[in-house]
Specification:
Chain B: One of its GO terms (cellular component) is mitochondrial membrane. Chain B: It is found in: Mitochondrion membrane. Chain B: This is ATP synthase membrane subunit DAPIT. The complex is a heterodimer of chains A (about 230) and B (about 80). Chain A contains seven helices and two strands, in the order ββααααααα. Chain A has about 230 residues and is mainly α. Chain A has a two-stranded antiparallel ribbon with strand order 1-2. In chain A, α1 crosses α3 and α4 packs antiparallel against α6. Chain A starts with 12 loop residues before the first strand and ends with a helix. The mean pLDDT of chain A is about 95. Chain B is mostly helical and about 80 residues long. Chain B has a domain of about 30 residues. The chains are: A mainly alpha (about 230), B mainly alpha (about 80). Chains A and B meet through α5 and α6 of A and α2 of B.
Chain lengths: ~230, ~80
Amino acid sequence: MMVSFFDQFASPSYLGIPLIAIAIALPWVLYPTPPARWINNRLITIQGWFINRFTNQLMLPLNVGGHKWALLLASLMIFLITINMLGLLPYTFTPTTQLSLNMGFAVPLWLATVIIGMRNQPTVALGHLLPEGTPIPLIPVLIIIETISLFIRPLALGVRLTANLTAGHLLIQLIATAVFVLLPMMPTVAILTAAVLFLLTLLEVAVAMIQAYVFVLLLSLYLQENV
Amino acid sequence: MYIFSNMTMSINRLRTEIMGGHDAGTHHQFTGIAKYFNSYTITGRRNCVLATYASIAALILFFKLKPKKQKAVKSS
């Protein structure tokens, strides 16, 4: 069997049983549910503090109507950041490298923001498609451009997350393979490549967190325009 | 008093520009068709968007429903 660099992105299965559901449900298992106690233990207190702080920060630019999305956006952020970080461990499968999953998040959530805007404030939602102060000859062109940019948003959201994570994982695998191949032949070069691999891994940890944050932040910005 | 009220209006406009806030367009006085189709008030912008979409839809409908010319059959 030929092993390729893209095997890490294949949907996992064991003896013919697909394991994708376990891979997606894994983050849920890792966060303890706070029990009904007045004061919890340190882990749950820190967990609650982080989630509250993050949600508060995310909801700052949104008005009261957008606060309904607090649970959805906070849980989406925790889900994405956990999946991305777990995917950096060796021999793990990262569900967010699959375009289907990311588009499954991006398209319905973006569409929800557009429908909310069209339903609650159609004039403002339609008016946003023409920048204020546009010169008259440019009006039709700019409306077409803004409409195209509106419809490209879910595509950009999904592909951004997929491409960043896929590229990162591929780079890590390529450079790690290079280190293994170079070690018997040119040990010095292999050590330098290993140093590059270490720095790349640090970068990928940052990218994993940042991309999850960017996904949720952009969604909150689209919501802010429409609510 | 007139100079003071003018200064207040200019400061308010400057504040809107600096803060990048949405201009309600209340200080624009449009007449005629510009009252309904302009790029300053929110309703003007909405009407421009709707007019553009209607024009594109009309163009598409026109080319779809246009009868196709059939070539005349030559007798041999």
